[in-house]
Amino acid sequence: MLSQIQRNIVSFYKDYIILAEELKREHSVFLKKIEKHVPEEYIKDVDYFDSNRYNYLRKRVLDLGNELNRDLERYFELLNVELNHEALDEAQKLRLGKLMAMSKSFQATPEGSKLKVKGKIL
To answer: For residues 50 and 107, what is the distance between their CA atoms, to the nearest angstrom?
Structure first.
């Protein structure tokens, strides 16, 4: 469970980096549009999203995401989780019952400890 949460966090901060890249591109497009109409010195003054700023933001996003993952590892070390197997079995039976109720044609046969299902389930 921890590794899945950590993967989700990594995906989340990668998305933030992609957003920062998109903002940098949009900023560059904006600067290209105005460079025809204003002096070059003005463009240098309004260029707040240069490579240094982008790299700083990228590093901050990565640092914050990695720090969050390290914190989660520490918190998970404090937990002892037990699953209620009876409740899980009941939930699985309910889910299977709902699928069977919605099915036009259905055949279920036990095969070892698994359930083999044939037919079209809608």
So the answer is: 63
